[in-house]
Design brief:
The protein is an alpha+beta fold. It has four helices and two strands; from the N terminus they run ααααββ. Strand 1 and strand 2 form a beta hairpin. Helix 1 crosses helix 2 and helix 1 crosses helix 3.
Length: 110
């Protein structure tokens, strides 16, 4: 039996599927998640990037299942949610590493 978030994806398909799921998660309005809007976004993305209907359905269902979890609800209830927050960090050798943190959640004082 598959675990709730397990998908059978490997190789190039796995990477492409991961990119699609990540793109969907970037679009989530954590205060008011809208799975229908995410599905529409996935279909539009599929049209430009060549994802099949199966991948679109599978990715949308995966994200929808996550949005129904207590963790997703906790994120939605947070005081502040920041997606794709840029950062720069200086390494020990003096070089800089740049990137983005996918999701930062501030639940306020507890």
């Amino acid at each position: 039996e598959a675990r709730p978030f397990e998908v059978a994806a490997d190789g190039e398909h796995g990477r492409a599927f991961g990119v699609l799921v990540h793109a969907l998660l970037e679009q989530v309005d954590w205060k008011r998640p809208d799975v229908a809007a995410l599905a529409a976004f996935a279909r539009a993305r599929a049209a430009t990037e060549g994802f099949g209907n199966g991948a679109v359905r599978e990715a949308t269902e995966l994200v929808a299942r996550f949005l129904a979890t207590p963790l997703a609800q906790r994120i939605g209830a947070a005081a502040r949610v920041i997606t794709e927050m840029p950062f720069v960090q200086q390494r020990e050798d003096g070089s800089l590493m740049e990137g983005a943190i996918d999701l930062v959640v501030d639940e306020g004082e507890k």
